[in-house]
């Protein structure tokens, strides 16, 4: 790589969903004159199979539509027309629905789509690969950087260096660049494990998602296209280890015990995965010529499925502040633009993390009195349409100060 070729306006460490979306959206907003590098440890073709599916908000869908990638994803995206919530013990023979609501925004669009990892990954990778102003540096690893008034210099593991006006860490929960910037994190581990798999079921799901709150954690049934569902399951860490060690028949029996039986017989339709759960928040989201997005900035409990949506909120906000600064003649790494990004995103992320943590703690108890209080509370919400509409708007990502991309407008 020549010295001239190693100069970029923005360097993004991590070809995650957030990293790829940021590269594509920034390049769309500012045109081919903006030079973007995306650095990632893995070559795009080497990504392992992934059992996850995401509850993609309407706002996130607007972002993908604005980027032009939604048509490639839409055939595999299942709109969620309604949500049912239960709160029972594991051995309950009957799981009454305590809260049920339609999942449409005031504009009449689905507040949520369930999207498998595969189509989303492929669409974002194709966008980055085919964009003339994006350079994919992979396999490569950004190990550190320095910044001064003239720019930032990023060091790669193989000894190469590249320069840019702005460095963005989209390199995950254990972000090396976050550490290099001296940004500390706060958080804690949960005594829980996340489990995910896909099942095929006998009867149609009717485009309804189900959230069973069980004492060891929530068990979500997320509808996929066809008679299929993604199971996103939070379990006590010790019990999860036992369950993950079972053969397929034993594993399916554990799912069936929690599934509820309304969709008939079920069968496994994909691999299973598990991971330890934790919460973390970066104390700062920016440093000189540096910004955090996605899991590098925050990690929340997965019970509401909002991790990816929070990442896309980061992306849309950062694209907007950088695009506004560059159009006014400033650099992509302008300090005032980055301060605006931090004000915009850090408080929202902290509130979301605290909310999901509180809900998890509230429902992860089988104390009869507390269960009765929860049942009354859910019943009250079920009878107040205005509260249901508020929850749908929150899930759709359309409340508060919404970046232009999340409203479907050009950045």
Could you outline the blueprint of secondary structure elements for this entry?
Blueprint: E1 10-13, H1 17-30, E2 36-39, E3 53-57, H2 58-67, H3 70-73, E4 78-79, E5 82-87, E6 99-102, E7 112-116, H4 117-130, E8 134-137, E9 142-148, E10 151-156, E11 161-164, E12 166-169, H5 176-180, E13 185-201, E14 208-214, E15 217-224, E16 228-236, H6 237-244, H7 248-259, E17 266-268, E18 273-282, E19 286-287, E20 290-292, E21 298-299, H8 307-327, H9 335-363, H10 368-382, H11 385-396
Describe this protein's structure.
This protein is α+β, with helices and mostly antiparallel strands and 411 residues long. The chain has two domains: 10-69 and 116-186 and 279-367 and 400-407, FAD/NAD(P)-binding domain (3-Layer(bba) Sandwich); 77-115 and 188-277, D-Amino Acid Oxidase, Chain A, domain 2, CATH 3.30.9.10. The protein is built from eleven helices and 21 strands. Strand 19 (286-287) and strand 20 form a beta hairpin. Belongs to the UbiH/COQ6 family. Keywords: FAD, Flavoprotein, Monooxygenase, Oxidoreductase, Ubiquinone. This is Ubiquinone biosynthesis protein UbiH.
Q: For the record, what is the CATH homologous superfamily label of the largest domain? A: FAD/NAD(P)-binding domain
Q: In whole angstroms, how far apart are the ends?
A: 32 Å
Subunit organisation of the chains: single chain
The CATH topology of the largest domain is given as FAD/NAD(P)-binding domain
Domains, number: 2
Unreliable stretches covering 5 or more consecutive residues: 1-5
Q: Which descriptor suits the 3D outline?
A: globular
Could you say what the CATH architecture of the largest domain is? 3-Layer(bba) Sandwich
Question: Under the CATH scheme, which class of the largest domain?
Answer: Alpha Beta
Beta strand %: 25-35%
> What is the count of β-strands?
21
Tell me the number of helical segments per DSSP (H or I, 4 or more residues long): 11
Helix-strand makeup class: alpha+beta
- Helical percent range? 25-40%
Largest sheet: 9 strands, mixed
The averaged pLDDT comes out at 91
GO cellular component, one term: ubiquinone biosynthesis complex
Domain FAD-binding: 8-346
Pathway: Cofactor biosynthesis; ubiquinone biosynthesis
Keywords: FAD, Flavoprotein, Monooxygenase, Oxidoreductase, Ubiquinone
């Amino acid at each position: 790589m020549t010295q001239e070729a190693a100069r970029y306006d923005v360097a993004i460490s991590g070809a995650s969903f957030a990293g790829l979306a940021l590269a594509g959206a920034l390049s769309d907003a500012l045109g081919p004159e903006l030079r973007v590098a995306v650095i990632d440890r893995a070559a795009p073709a080497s990504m392992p199979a992934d059992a996850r599916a995401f509850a993609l908000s309407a706002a996130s869908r607007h972002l993908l539509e604005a980027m032009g990638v939604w048509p490639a994803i839409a055939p595999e995206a299942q709109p969620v027309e309604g949500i049912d919530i239960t709160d029972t013990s594991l051995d309950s023979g009957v799981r009454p629905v305590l809260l049920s609501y339609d999942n449409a925004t005031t504009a009449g669009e689905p507040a949520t789509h369930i999207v498998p990892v595969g189509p989303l990954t492929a669409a974002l990778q194709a966008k980055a690969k085919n964009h003339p102003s994006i350079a994919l540096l992979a396999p490569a690893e950004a190990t550190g950087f320095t910044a001064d008034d003239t720019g930032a210099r990023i060091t790669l593991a193989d000894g190469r260096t590249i320069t840019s006006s702005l460095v963005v860490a989209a390199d995950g929960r254990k972000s090396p660049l976050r550490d290099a910037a001296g940004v500390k994190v706060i958080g804690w581990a949960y005594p829980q494990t996340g489990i995910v798999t896909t099942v095929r079921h006998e009867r149609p799901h009717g485009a309804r998602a189900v959230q069973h709150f069980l004492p060891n954690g929530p068990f979500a049934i997320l509808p996929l296209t066809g008679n299929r569902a993604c199971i996103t399951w939070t379990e006590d860490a010790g019990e999860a280890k036992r369950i993950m060690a079972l053969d397929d028949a034993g594993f399916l029996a554990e799912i069936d015990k929690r599934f509820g039986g309304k969709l008939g017989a079920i069968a496994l339709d994909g691999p299973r995965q598990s991971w330890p759960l934790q919460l973390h928040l970066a104390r700062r989201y920016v440093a000189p010529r540096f910004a955090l997005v996605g899991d590098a900035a925050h990690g929340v409990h997965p019970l509401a499925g909002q991790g990816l949506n929070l990442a896309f909120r980061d992306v849309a906000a950062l694209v907007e502040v950088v695009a506004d600064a560059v159009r006014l003649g400033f650099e992509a790494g302008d300090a005032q633009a980055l301060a605006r990004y931090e004000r915009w995103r850090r408080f929202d992320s902290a509130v979301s993390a605290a909310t999901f943590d509180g809900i998890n703690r509230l429902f992860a108890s089988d104390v009869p009195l507390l269960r009765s209080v929860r049942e009354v509370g859910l019943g009250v919400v079920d009878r107040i349409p205005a509260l249901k509409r508020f929850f749908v708007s929150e899930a759709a990502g359309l409340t508060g100060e919404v970046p232009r991309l999340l409203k479907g407008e050009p950045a």
